[in-house]
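Whiteboard transcription, Tuesday session. T.W. wrote the structure tokens on the left side:
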């Protein structure tokens, strides 16, 4: 039976993928390249455990559509506006230089500008899935090079649409020449306008009505239906299903329900995308790579090196240092997953011959497999490279002239590395106590705004010795590192400690695993965000339970003094942290506060507090009495109660109920 045949192939695919991914997990490598390796091993060109790869390819097509659908959902017009300069400068330079270089080299070797231009398009695209996963795992997604790499990837996502429209013309499958291309672009523009109108009017109202049913299944069906109808509509207009899927995701993203839709679709997308990468691996012919190993490895080196340099030009124009620009370039130096889709279309349309197609697959797969290692060792490689080549002269950053060097030397000051939220707050606190400080920041626009507000901000890469010397690090009292780049933080601590052994260094990090290394390099205080958040939460909860402030401060001080050892897991990752209190705080009863109003006929009216016997009979305690417009805190035992008094009473719930009955003569409501 055909159904059992497909089911058997899927079982083989998932079993093989599971083993490969587990092996890569042990090596701390991302899963996506592992699916390609699994496909190479299981496919007809190796172990041949999958009899008919075309069955898997059919499901992989669904994965491509879902990939573009979820990219559209993740795509935010507001984010595009926020990162506009980074996206355009970094992304445009990377795409332009890569396509131009590939066109020149491809035309020289292949003799066809159409094929060369097409190869430029597929080579220029990078892997959004791999890059964002690795940067997120390393905690560098918010680092300067992480933000720049994200901007390049967003620009590439935008370029996918025109590339898909141009493809039929490169293949000679479309009639009309330039006029036909203009007509196709006009149709696409109309489709986009229609999508935007639907995103602003129809879809939010429809989803709002569906959500009133509180049915997750109905919501998921509605989201998939929107994607399907939009994809079919764009296909009817002459565009592709993939473009329609991207636009459908854009519709959802502009509504208030984009995050929920993405959460519902992610498991489906991940499964189908896994099948897509497995299918790509099955297409790779290992004998082609083996027979042309020198050409393949040379192409890998040229492509990754060229893309790294082309992506670094834009950040240099924005004012970033050569080191940051190259780190961003290295992050996007591989060939991306959507390039496989374009290459397959190019093969089907006759743009790529079988041998060229197989060589492209081999090169693309190797670049993706190399990327995690390259991102992991990139900072160390650049450290060595900087000793041989002055990166800031090669990519000088075009430093703005108004960022003048420090004229008047300061001493006993604080150097703030990074002017994000933490840096701004620290600067405000130092300004309030009139303490001298200097700010160093890599974002030229941030420095310009800060100097416009009168801040002593300077452009520079604080991982460089000459920058720290210019900031007077030998005369400084403190260095506060408030950036989100773990590698740059380690480098900054090491260099600053070498320059000033008496300097007090405070470093911020996202993860507690960074504490031992930063302390070894010379940091005096390392503040991990994840544990400081935990401390703030439990300190407030303990205060709510009336734990003495001294006890909370003792506990928090002990945790910080031990480098957060009490909050770290014990045996096994699931082991619970152990916190030690002095005294039996765990048994402290829960206390409530109640306001009791004495009516004219209340039994307590005219009696003193001692006469009521409130404390001895109920256990409750009167904290304050409000009489008219005046308040009396902690009244004495001889205080005489009157009608209309409002008593503030504290005690456990049962004690408060007894106090209410005793004082008012009535049952509590």
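and on the right, the sequence the group agreed on:
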């Amino acid at each position: 039976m055909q159904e059992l045949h497909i089911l058997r192939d899927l079982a083989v695919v998932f079993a093989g993928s599971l083993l490969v991914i587990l092996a890569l997990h042990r090596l701390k490598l991302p899963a996506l390249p592992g699916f390609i390796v699994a496909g190479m091993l299981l496919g007809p060109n190796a172990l041949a455990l999958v009899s008919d790869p075309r069955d898997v390819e059919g499901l992989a097509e669904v994965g491509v559509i879902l990939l573009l659908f979820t990219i559209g959902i993740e795509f935010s017009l507001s984010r595009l506006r926020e990162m506009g300069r980074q996206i355009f400068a970094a992304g445009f330079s990377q795409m332009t230089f890569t396509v131009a270089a590939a066109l020149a080299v491809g035309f020289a070797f292949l003799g066809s500008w159409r094929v060369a231009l097409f190869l430029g398009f597929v080579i220029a695209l990078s892997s959004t899935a791999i890059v964002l996963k690795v940067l997120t795992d390393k905690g560098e997604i918010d680092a300067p090079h992480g933000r720049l790499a994200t901007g390049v990837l967003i620009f590439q996502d935008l370029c996918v649409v025109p590339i898909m429209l141009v493809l039929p013309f490169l293949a000679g499958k479309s009639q009309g020449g330039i006029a036909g291309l203009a007509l196709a672009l006009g149709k696409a523009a109309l489709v986009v306008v229609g999508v935007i109108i639907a995103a602003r009017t129809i879809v939010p109202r429809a989803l709002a009505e569906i959500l009133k049913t509180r049915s997750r299944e109905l919501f998921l069906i509605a989201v998939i239906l929107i994607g399907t109808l939009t994809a079919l509509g764009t296909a009817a207009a002459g565009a592709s299903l993939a473009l329609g899927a991207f636009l459908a995701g854009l519709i959802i993203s502009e509504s208030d329900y984009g995050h929920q839709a993405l959460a519902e679709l992610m498991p489906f997308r991940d499964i189908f995308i896994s099948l897509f990468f497995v299918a790509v691996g099955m297409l790779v012919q290992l004998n082609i790579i083996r027979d042309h190993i020198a050409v393949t490895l040379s192409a890998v080196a040229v492509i990754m090196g060229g893309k790294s340099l082309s992506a670094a030009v834009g950040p240099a124009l924005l004012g970033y240092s050569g080191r940051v620009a190259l780190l961003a370039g290295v992050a996007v130096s591989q060939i991306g997953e959507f390039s496989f889709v374009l290459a397959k279309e190019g093969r089907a349309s006759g743009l790529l011959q079988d041998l060229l197609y197989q060589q492209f697959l081999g090169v693309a797969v190797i670049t993706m497999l190399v990327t995690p290692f390259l991102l992991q060792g990139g900072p160390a490689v650049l450290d060595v490279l900087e000793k041989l080549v002055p990166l800031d002269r090669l990519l000088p950053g075009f430093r703005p002239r108004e960022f003048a060097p420090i004229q008047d030397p300061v001493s006993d000051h604080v150097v703030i590395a990074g002017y994000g939220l933490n840096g701004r707050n620290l600067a405000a606190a130092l300004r309030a106590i009139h303490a001298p400080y200097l700010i160093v920041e890599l974002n030229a626009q941030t420095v310009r705004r800060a100097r416009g507000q009168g801040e002593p901000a300077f452009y520079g890469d604080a991982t460089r010795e000459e920058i720290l010397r210019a900031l007077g690090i030998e005369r400084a009292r403190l260095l506060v590192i408030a950036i989100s780049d773990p590698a740059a933080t380690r480098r900054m601590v090491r260099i600053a400690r070498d320059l000033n052994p008496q300097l007090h260094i405070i470093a911020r990090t996202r993860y507690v695993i960074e504490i031992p290394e930063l302390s070894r390099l010379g940091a005096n205080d390392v503040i991990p965000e994840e544990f400081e958040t935990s401390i703030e939460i439990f300190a407030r909860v303990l205060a709510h339970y009336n734990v003495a402030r001294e006890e909370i401060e003792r506990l928090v001080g002990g945790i910080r003094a031990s480098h957060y050892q009490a909050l770290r897991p014990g045996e096994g990752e699931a082991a619970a942290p152990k916190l030690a209190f002095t005294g039996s705080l765990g048994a402290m009863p829960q206390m409530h506060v109640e306001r009791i109003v004495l009516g004219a006929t209340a039994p307590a009216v005219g009696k003193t507090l001692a006469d009521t016997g409130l404390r001895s009979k109920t256990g409750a305690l009167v904290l304050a009495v409000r009489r008219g417009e005046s308040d009396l805190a902690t009244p004495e035992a001889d205080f005489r109660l009157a009608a209309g008094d409002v008593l503030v009473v504290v005690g456990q719930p049962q004690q408060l109920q007894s106090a209410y009955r005793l004082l008012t003569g009535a049952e509590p409501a």
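Someone added at the bottom: The chain has four domains: 2-388, 414-523, 531-587, 592-664.
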